Amino acid sequence: MDVLMVPRLDDEGLPDDDIEPLFDPMAELDVRIRALYALKERYQKTKEGVKLLFAALPTTDSVLLQHELLYNVGQCGLEDAVPQLIHVASNAELLDVVTRHEAIEAMGAIGSAACVPFLQMLMQTSTEAPIRESCDLALRRLQTLATEGARGVAGPPSCHFTSVDPSPPFHDTKTFVELRQILLDESAPLWERYRAMFTLRNLGTSEAVEVLCVALLNDTSSCLFRHEVAFVLGQLEHSASEEALSRCVADRNEHPMVRHEAAEALGALAVPSSLAVLSQFAEDRNALVRDSCVVGLEMHKYWSAFRPATDE
Fold first, then answer.
1. Cα distances (angstroms) measured from residue 239 to each of 165, 196, 233, 234, 266
2. Mean of pLDDT values over 234-258
3. Cβ neighbour number for residue 77 with a 10 Å cutoff
4. Is 174 helix (H, G, I), strand (E, B) or coil?
């Protein structure tokens, strides 16, 4: 897949043995994902790590693996990655919408003003709703960063979620009723709904999980929004979300990007009853869903070793 500007790995830049499978096109997906985890642990937020993440991109046609690589590029927060991310996001003819969305989201996470002209252009010219919406969210995050500084896009000091999110939570006090109303209002700006989503995630209550599940199953406005809801439910790892996530994975009328995040979220829950759904759809006709269920099964196996089956 010679469509990306990627650095070459010279002899001195070859990865360690446990990371090397990430660059092997013949390696099984779960093996490559484990190698990615090893890379993340060893090269957290370093230029060398970003170089290796980009070097792995042209070795795979798996949209899931491309998505995971680019997500981690964004989480590194290094401006050196911006030209390559723009190149990825520009390849509409050769790369899946999920891969390109993730490159756009990574630009927002990095927070470089150098991205603004490209994102504005792409938002105005793209015919794909997830791409336009991803650009809008990234631009709003960049604008908030420019006007309010790092505090404007940060979560509360007490927040134990360490991910760099597409939007910050609300900084002013809002009631649960207000948050629910904003989250479920399909006419509200996506930026506001995202802020309500991350505020509810930070609350982490059973009531918050319940309303997030309602949004996942009932929203009709944006597959990008629903995919982020599934991601947040995976972060919360609350067993009360299992039914909604399972229904989402099983819904062949749902966008693959949503089913994909729901499958990984099910894996993070690691409850025994989710194994049947993940196993069934690990043979789905859609490659992204299929791969996500394979990874979800691996996540389930890993987290089950640390979590009692009765964990609520």
1. 23, 21, 10, 10, 9
2. 97
3. 15
4. coil
Distance, in Å, from the CA atom of 72 to the CA atom of 225, rounded to the nearest integer, reads 20
pLDDT tens sequence across 152-192: 999 988 888 999 999 999 999 999 999 999 999 999 999 99
Is the dihedral angle over the CA atoms 298, 305, 227, 115 positive or is it negative?
A: negative
- The structural domains of the chain, with segments of one domain joined by +, span 1-153, 157-312
CA distances, 12 to each of 8, 36, 38, 262 (Å)? 11, 19, 19, 39
Cα(265)–Cα(288) distance, integer angstroms: 14
- CATH number of the domain at 1-153, out of 3.40.50.300, 1.25.10.10, 3.40.220.10, 1.10.10.10? 1.25.10.10
Residue 115, token pair as written in the block: 């991205």
Residue 100 and residue 70: Cα distance in Å, rounded?
9
Terminal CA-CA length for the chain: 44
CATH number assigned to the domain covering 157-312:
1.25.10.10
Determine phi and psi for 19, rounding to 5 degrees: -100, -25
Segment 185-233, tens digit of pLDDT = 999 999 999 999 999 999 999 999 999 999 999 999 999 999 999 999 9
Q: How many Å apart are CA 225 and CA 191, to the nearest integer?
A: 10
- Tell whether pTM > 0.90: yes
Separation between Cα atoms, residue 229 and residue 213, nearest integer Å? 8
* Range from 112-126, 149-163, 214-228, 255-269 carrying the lowest mean pLDDT: 149-163
